[in-house]
Amino acid sequence: MKIKTILAAGAMTVAAVAAQNAQAGAVLDGIKAKGFVQCGVNTGLPGFSAANAEGKWEGIDVDVCRAIAAAVLGDANSVQYTPLTAAQRFTALQSGEIDILSRNTTATTTRDAKLGLTFVGINYYDGQGFLIPKALGVKSATELDGATVCVEPGTTTELNLADYFRAKGMSFEPVVIENINEATAAFFSGRCDVYTTDASGLASIRTTMAENPDDYMILPEIISKEPLGPVVAQGDEQWSDVARWALTAMVEAEELGVTMENVDDMKANSTNPGIQRLLGVSPGMGEALGLDEEWAYRIIKNVGNYGESYEKNVTAKLGLERGLNALWTDGGLQYAWPVR
Amino acid sequence: MSDNAKSPPLPTGTFAERAVSWSKKNLFDGWFNSILTIGAIAFLLWLIPPIIEWGIVNATLEPTIEGCKEVSGACWGFVNANLRLILFGTYPYDEQWRPLLAMIILMGIICGSLGAVKYPGLRKAIIPMWVIGVPIIAILMWGGVLGLTYVQNSYWGGLPLTLILSSIGVIFAFPFGLLLALGRQSHMPAIKTMSVVYIEVIRGVPLITVLFMASVMFPLFLPDGVTIDKLLRAQIGIILFTAAYLAEVFRGGLQAVPRGQFEAGDSLALSYWQSMRLIILPQALRLVIPPTVNSFISMFKDTTLVVIIGLFDFLGTVKLALRSDPAWTKYYVEGYAFAAAIFFLICFSMAKYSAYLEKELRKGERR
């Protein structure tokens, strides 16, 4: 009885926190007042968010925060980063410690509906895959019956793995290792046949950790959907709109061929109505969001379009091609809602 | 027993003769000890050369990935290239002289305070040093005044953070632990019960749980807009945790002081606090120097756990550097070896100082 009471009190507090956030415009006004966006990022995931040798945060997730800062405050550097672990991330958002969480977070029903969060878009489509040594002679994940699999514990990765093998009626022997360095070392020393994690992670492990990357291959099967995107606390619609459209503007800019380099030229000379709307030549978009008309121009000028951000971070750091993250016109999934 | 009785007869003969007789006496004293000696030598011969070969002979300091790929040994270039990231974490690059200066001041204050045992003249300076030094360190780290730019403490990291967390931890945990130990010995039931419950509860959970609660659960119970700083929450967690352990160490010391000493205090009509300060604690604390330092060393190493709540202590910044560029990731052995060396250096100094302190404070007992 007592434990129930305590738990109920805890749940009510969480709900109360979520409810108190529900004042439209509060977050945006707060950001304008304090002069920076407080952004929750990963504590270190190359290509997504990692500190460079000078201690500056870089990555495709970091660029989302920079884009929002450029749109709202005019300066992409007006961001303060809070590195967060997986366990802390939602609390930090719910308690108002951060304004936005841009930390390779998978959008799921429970998170969106139950935790009082709003996903504002998807900036990276990932999925779980398998890395194997070519010497194993396996061409498909369906041939992995009886394999030993290296996996990190306590993640959806571990659950997906079990689900997949059960669904296929196959058996496997998990080798559960907490630390990613040790896990990969175990894999490359031959302690397990297969290493599994998100495909982006597999690609970077293959190119950077293997003695000879050509001896290893990623199997074609992707066994889970991991749409990763930035998240805000539920309740402040104006703020979630700003975040959503800042991300959308980056993709829209790529669709329209507007880059960091040519944005000034486009703004002055383009006759394409879509570009004119995006860059604020024909006004209305900024006003609708509660920003000025140059919001998207500043995003592209300071941070670049989605493709540029992807090239600079994911391709350069991890050697990953666009794949699912190509524009829809190139066979990928990135499809910007029209800015109009 | 006088020192003379213990000392061996004066050595005679040439150096070689003495070496032979010494090793006969100390290394090959009977067949069992001879086997142990030979075994130990064989083990060292097996262990040391590959480490030297890897760490020195075949190693490189060149701070590029290309340079590291060329050598078969250790890639100290990883540490070389990322030294500032490892030392100062994500603290703004151009401002890193501030944590460096703060760290030097902190080390100066610590050395000054510890040196007071040898140079009694420093004793009066201890409190002023901390009272003046800590605000200076805070101003350097945070900034926001005197033309220094403001730096949120989510940007603090590396060695300064480790030193700040552990030295502030020691300074506050020590008196708090002492009060808890006295509370546990108290005749007042309320205070005694509170102290016992506190000590047992905190000792019954791992530090990682305390940090986790402070970082994940606690913020949910605060009203909206009120956030207590992440670093402060971790610092308080470390203090509360260490204090409980220190309290038990101190209790051991208090119990080892003979009953007569308490009675002596009473018979001189000293108040409780006077007799504690003048008679009991000086004896009790001296007795427990080794376990106290033991607690400090373990707390110093425990500060690395703050990495689970997204703070980058010295070990955390090594991990940060490993992930700064995926190409560096495979040189994690070098990174961790470097961190281990620094941690060892600091912990070993603490242990050495404790041995020195014990010797110094026992002077009164020796003949």
Please provide a written account of the structure.
Chain B: InterPro entries: AA_ABC_transptr_permease_3TM, ArtM/GltK/GlnP/TcyL/YhdX-like, MetI-like, MetI-like_sf. Chain B: Keywords: Cell membrane, Membrane, Transmembrane, Transmembrane helix, Transport. Chain B: It is a multi-pass membrane protein. Chain B: The chain crosses the membrane at residues 31-52, 97-117, 129-151, 163-183, 204-222, 234-254, 336-357. Chain B: Residues 159-355 form the ABC transmembrane type-1 domain. Chain A: Keywords: Signal, Transport. The complex is a heterodimer of chains A (340) and B (367). With 340 residues, chain A is an alpha/beta fold. Chain A is 42% helix and 18% strand. Chain A is built from 14 helices and 13 strands. In chain A, strands 1, 4, 5, 6, 7 and 13 form a six-stranded mixed sheet that branches. A five-stranded mixed sheet of chain A has the order 10-9-11-8-12, sandwiched between helices. Chain A has a two-stranded antiparallel ribbon with strand order 2-3. In chain A, helix 3 (60-73) packs across helix 9 (237-256), helix 3 packs across helix 13 (295-302) and helix 9 (237-256) crosses helix 13. Residues 7-22 of chain A have low confidence and may be disordered. Chain B has 367 residues and is mainly alpha-helical. Chain B has a domain at 152-365: MetI-like (MetI-like fold), CATH 1.10.3720.10. Chain B contains 17 helices and one strand. The longest helix of chain B has 30 residues, at 332-361. The radius of gyration of chain B is 26 Å and the shape is globular. Mean pLDDT of chain B is 86; it is low at 1-5. Classes of the chains: A alpha/beta (340), B mainly alpha (367). Chain A binds chain B through residues 10, 13-14, 16-17, 20-21, 43-47, 50-57, 80-85, 87-88, 91-92, 94-97, 181, 204, 207-209, 317-318, and chain B through 81-82, 84-85, 88-93, 152, 154-155, 157, 212, 215-217, 219-225, 227, 230, 307-312, 316, 319-327, 329-330, 332.
